[in-house]
Amino acid sequence: MKTLDLHRLSYQDAHREIERFVNDNWDAPADSLKIITGHSQKMRKVATVVLHRYDVAYKIGGPLGIDDSYILI
Q1: Architecture per CATH, 2-72
Q2: C-alpha span between 69 and 62 (Å, rounded)
Q3: Where does the pLDDT of residue 64 fall: very low under 50, low under 70, confident under 90, or very high at 90 and above?
Q4: Domain locations in the chain as residue ranges
Q5: Dihedral (C-alpha) 20, 25, 26, 31: value to the nearest 10 degrees?
Q6: From its phi and psi, is residue 45 left (phi > 0), alpha (psi between -120 and 50) or beta?
Q7: How much is the pTM?
Q8: Which of 12, 25, 34, 56 is most exposed, with the fewest beta carbons within 10 Å of its own?
């Protein structure tokens, strides 16, 4: 699974890195990409805004949706 860790990035830098990550992995199979946001609601919002703009299906957390520190694409 390819992973993008957003820890230690500013929100602006995270936005750019998420765009780059999605573009670079556009043809990846479903549920094969992970974006680690940590527990920051604002960082999760930055990520979901980008994913919505790309019309990418995603799920916050694991199979039960309990761990909100990452997003599966």
Answers
A1: 2-Layer Sandwich (3.30)
A2: 9
A3: confident
A4: 2-72
A5: -120
A6: alpha
A7: 0.93
A8: 12
